[in-house]
């Protein structure tokens, strides 16, 4: 793995070392054991865990500009911040205001990868959606991410950055509702509607490829596997992997479930496959679920 050099800058800054950000850090460490990897966290406990894994933790809160004044100059920056409702801050303050603060202090020459979401799309009739499709988000999360994307366009019009809109992330320790399927509990919500998915390791691979493959890079990529799947079929596959009866579904009046059920679209990943990930580790949910659940049930 080779990256371009930025005078006076070295290493990678990862803001948000959670499920995907942490995996990116691990893959970078495997590829370059000596390169500095700075991981931003708000928690001293998380900082200790990150230090034990060989990273250089920085305790900072990106919504507080005062904590960002001593950020190291890095040639690569990953923004992988998930909204924490326990923070007491709005999504606007956290995701848009935080990114605005970070861009003020991060190296202007750095390669920035921003993890957004396919939740910015409003389509709900099973349409195929790609990078050229209009995005008019309905949910507050999608609205905040789209505003953060716009901030990158406005603040760094000539800068080096890529937006990766990720589909639903799954992987080790994260198969939604798998315990309910294992216990034979009904799944609330609709049994139809397409799910668009990406395995955590392929999401991390897309981040690294966005840094590596500068000659192919565009501003925007949708990160999803090859196989949008109906919700029923996905959970039937979960049941097969767990060797239990197929799940049943129960109607729900939950507002959050209703919002998710309206997201009925299929993500077309042609640009991602052509430019960044010609080979995926898990090109469809069957391979991904089989690998994850086999290792977790052994």
**Distance between the first and last residues' Cα:** 33 Å
The CATH topology label is: Rossmann fold
Radius of gyration (CA) equals 19 Å
Task: Tell me the domain tally.
Answer: 1
| SSE pattern | EHEHEEHEEHEEHEEEHEEHEHEHH
Please give the count of helices.
10
Biggest sheet strand line-up: 3-2-1-4-5-7-12
Helix and strand content put the structural class at alpha/beta
- Using DSSP, what is the number of strands? 15
CATH class: Alpha Beta
> Which consecutive residue ranges, at least 5 long each, have pLDDT under 50?
1-8
Say which CATH homologous superfamily is assigned. Answer: NAD(P)-binding Rossmann-like Domain
Shape: globular
Can you name the CATH architecture?
Answer: 3-Layer(aba) Sandwich
On the 0 to 100 scale, the average pLDDT is 90
What is the makeup of the main sheet? Answer: 7 strands, parallel
Helix content: 25-40%
Description of the molecule:
This protein has one domain (12-171, 197-228, 265-282): NAD(P)-binding Rossmann-like Domain (Rossmann fold). With 298 residues, it is an alpha/beta fold. It starts with 11 loop residues before the first strand and ends with a helix. It contains ten helices and 15 strands. 41% of the residues are buried. The chain is 37% helix and 18% strand. Helix 1 (19-31) packs across helix 6 (200-212). The longest helix has 16 residues, at 140-155. It has a seven-stranded parallel beta sheet with strand order 3-2-1-4-5-7-12, with helices on both faces. The protein has a two-stranded parallel ribbon with strand order 6-15. It has a two-stranded parallel ribbon with strand order 8-11.
